[in-house]
Amino acid sequence: MANSEFILPDVGEGLTEAEIVSWKVKPGDTVVINQVLVEIETAKSLVELPSPFAGTVAELLVDEGQTVDVGTPIITVAATSSAPAPVIPEASLDEANAIAETARTISSESAGSAAAAALPEEKSAPNLVGYGAKGHGGSRRRRGEPAPVTPTGDVHAVARPASVPAAAASAVIARPPVRKLAKDLGVDLAEVVPTGLAGEITRDDVVRQAKQASVFRNIETPAWADEREEKIPVKGVRKAIATAMVSSAFTAPHVSVFVDIDATRTMEFVKRLKNSPDFAGVRVSPLLIVAKALIWAVRRNPTVNSSWTDQEITVHHYVNLGIAAATPRGLLVPNVKDAQQLSLLELAKALEQLTLTARDGKTQPAEMAGGTITITNVGSFGMDTGTPILNPGEAAILAMGTIKQKPWIVDGEVRPRFVTTVAGSFDHRIVDGDVASRFIADVASIIEEPALLLD
User: Fold this and answer.
1) Residue 14's domain spans which residues?
2) Which of 86, 106, 177, 147 is nearest to 362 (CA)?
3) How many folded domains does the chain comprise?
4) Helices in 146-194 by DSSP H: which ranges?
5) Dihedral of the CA atoms 362, 365, 366, 367 (nearest 10)?
6) Whether 428 is catalytic
7) pLDDT in tens, 197-226
8) Active site residue: 136, 156, 317, 428, which one?
């Protein structure tokens, strides 16, 4: 039986290398087509590679932690025309059916709610990464576990390994993406107060718990390490960030402007949207209004949405809106394609999906390519403002500060108002001071009066 080599494919646009993070199979394992073989880390993404072969794993050619070039053989499989599907123990199937029934109950009770929107959907097998159109990543499972089972007619049920007692699994009710988010953020689910229906822990519950134990409040101060120094290899995400930031800082001459804004009407507008039936189950935050304000301001000041080469300036008459996302793996800047074409509701859904995908470490290279202008929300860390560095290839970046109550003069009287500071950094080769100032003033005008979006 001949062995087939699986080479490291280019899973992004122009990917040259990737690190082998973790193998999901071992020699002797039986694999089927599209079964996840390995998890790799590219410049900024974790990617699961499915098998293009069915057969038995013969040899792992690359160790975990090793970085290899695209085109390098990484695993050999003794291929057969087909391989038997993993045998699922009867007990596991019974548990799958029980979980399916629970999922159906939760889904029916929470129709139109955020909990229902968060339920993971089982889809048909994805296309192979590097072997045609991109598909979604397969669900992760430990080595040797049976494949997930979804009873016919239920798109939300996922089988739990038979080795996990039902009582232990029911102690904390949280879906796999929420559990992974908790792990990434260092949150103990047993300490989280659930707010979901049927006592389910939601993403918001985990994020809230993480913020309470963040560097800004209530975190334990660890003892000094025994070693005087720690060596951290510069690779993967950190290497990509360093290269991009150095290139941007020393290539584009940055200039920054700032403005304080009365954001009270934006906060009132956000509250109304949250209570609107049209936005039921959709996460709404001031970032949505800032994003819409930026898109409106770009239309009025198009040169801020440009790219520079030594030969020409390319003005983009579309907005691929980047959102800088701080994740446990580092800074990611995925973008919403053609954001200028989206309604407020569509933009809200796109921003929510972008954020959740980034937090789960599922952002793909293509989702970070082609950005034209970026927002960085430093306010989420309690910061008032900053001087952000341009995302390489872009002419402008907007920094959104925290929104908090401050004394503000209204009609000659001092009143408490919700106030924020917005800053913008620009490539001074493209954007002059007057254009930069008009752009920030336009963004500010929408934050002060969101009703202008209706014009």
Assistant:
1) 3-80
2) 177
3) 3
4) 166-171, 176-185
5) 50
6) yes
7) 778 888 888 887 776 655 444 445 667 778
8) 428
